[in-house]
Amino acid sequence: xxxxxxxxxxxxxxxxxxxxxxxxxxxxxxxxxxxxxxxxxxxxxxxxxxxxxxxxxxxxxxxxxxxxxxxxxxxxxxxxxxxxxxxxxxxxxxxxxxxxxxxxxxxxxxxxxxxxxxxxxxxxxxxxxxxxxxxxxxxxxxxxxxxxxxxxxxxxxxxxxxxxxxxxxxxxxxxxxxxxxxxxxxxxxxxxxxxxxxxxxxxxxxxxxxxxxxxxxxxxxxxxxxxxxxxxxxxxxxxxxxxxxxxxxxxxxxxxxxxxxxxxxxxxxxxxxxxxxxxxxxxxxxxxxxxxxxxxxxxxxxxxxxxxxx
Amino acid sequence: xxxxxxxxxxxxxxxxxxxxxxxxxxxxxxxxxxxxxxxxxxxxxxxxxxxxxxxxxxxxxxxxxxxxxxxxxxxxxxxxxxxxxxxxxxxxxxxxxxxxxxxxxxxxxxxxxxxxxxxxxxxxxxxxxxxxxxxxxxxxxxxxxxxxxxxxxxxxxxxxxxxxxxxxxxxxxxxxxxxxxxxxxxxxxxxxxxxxxxxxxxxxxxxxxxxxxxxxxxxxxxxxxxxxxxxxxxxxxxxxxxxxxxxxxxxxxxxxxxxxxxxxxxxxxxxxxxxxxxxxxxxxxxxxxxxxxxxxxxxxxxxxxxxxxx
Lengths: 310, 310
What we know:
The structure is a homodimer.
Chain A: H1 7-16, E1 20-25, H2 30-41, E2 45-51, H3 53-62, E3 70-74, H4 77-90, E4 96-99, H5 104-112, E5 125-131, E6 139-142, H6 152-170, E7 175-180, H7 191-204, E8 211-217, H8 219-223, H9 225-230, E9 243-245, H10 249-261, E10 266-272, E11 278-279, H11 287-302
Parallel strand pairs in A: 1-2, 1-4, 2-3, 4-11, 6-9, 7-8, 7-9
Antiparallel strand pairs in A: 5-6, 5-10
Helix pairs in contact in A: 1-11, 2-11, 4-5
């Protein structure tokens, strides 16, 4: 099996290996269909669409999309399209799920449905894998999009999700996770530093399998050994983080946006924690990020996402 | 008077104009002295040091620093060095203040001293001015370093400080301020979006002179008109922000670090809100950022910082 070492490799792997099938909930507008079109054309996925056949076919025609490797399942409204897309994955007719024109809460409600959803017992969280020219390996930013202000156990869940993704995609058995805060010392006035201390101790006691977590760390000493040395930080993670856990969504969102828009990263994002990868791109994402994200979902599905979960 | 339009211009202005005098509290280690040495050599400032004469002179000799344009005032310990440096500014013997080897809380306590400090009634906040190749003008990030979780009135104070700095340095009479959050809609579960709504309304009612504030905005639609259009956001600030107000310090710190380390910005930072600019660089800052920050303090002092405050 091809070794994946970067976001570029993810795209290459997903393009080269036999296509996973992606269920897309109501891709009725051009923006949500464009990236799917390219992904199908490049052999990254085949696709099955749920929704209003008339609207989907109209959108496909507008984009000059052929019907090769595409199936359409009729659905009545966005909720029905969401639950039918989820069912396709649950039944094994598709290996990954993507949000089309439906609202985010509609697709997530279908994923989380107790009887017909894709629950695994894990919480859902967003993970963004990125490469930056100054970093020697891919890093995961989590959670920049799903959990608003995760409590301690939710933070641990987010970490486990990210580590599982890293294991599936990169074959990494153990991930180093930096628990981010505004500084490197525990400060009773800053909850992010207290949570970091708790999680560090849990990790040290072996309570988070597959993860070596340490914090509080600031972004610079999480990523750069030199910055950690300057501050005299003794940490198994500093300067070598695979995972960046942000304390709350505002922190993650601003980092996500600054990395994608100002720092020129190559990235791929996916929702973790369900029985299959869920691709949930934002209108603000550019085409490369959207395509990479579909490829990440396809690669993860192909390499056993959800099956090898401990 | 030379027009300043960028961080590069700030450095040029401070190098060209008659030097402001900077009081430095105990620059006894090489790291805190290095940037001062370069700033003095380049004519950005002249300097007066407070602290242990023996230690300061030893550090100066290690760095090969001449005693030209340098005075030393003896002080006994870091607290004394801090309060003597503040007194020099208060008495008009220096126009800006810089932290040397003393601890941050020591210098700030001296600045905030009720009788001998540099209080103005404003809160203290940190502002980072930066240029990025994708942005057509300098932008201020605030507050990434001082206020942990500012409440509504503190956020307004932070905005006023940033606007004052922009007015002094760039001659900008009115600044557009983006109140950042993780999304662009008001969500009762996300305090950052509620505060953004309050501040927007205050601004609309003319309660924040010199500032047109709007939010909640995410970083992308604050800075890029195209991103705001994609989301259909109607805002006087979106795509044209001069000031980025982050909801809490973790958010500011992670943005500060990603911008300086991964996004290649040119930046200068200063503490605002006292009667004079306070330069408070971090060990993690590189030499260019430290030098720019001294230049920003010098330029702001030269252009009337603290005197023209409304």
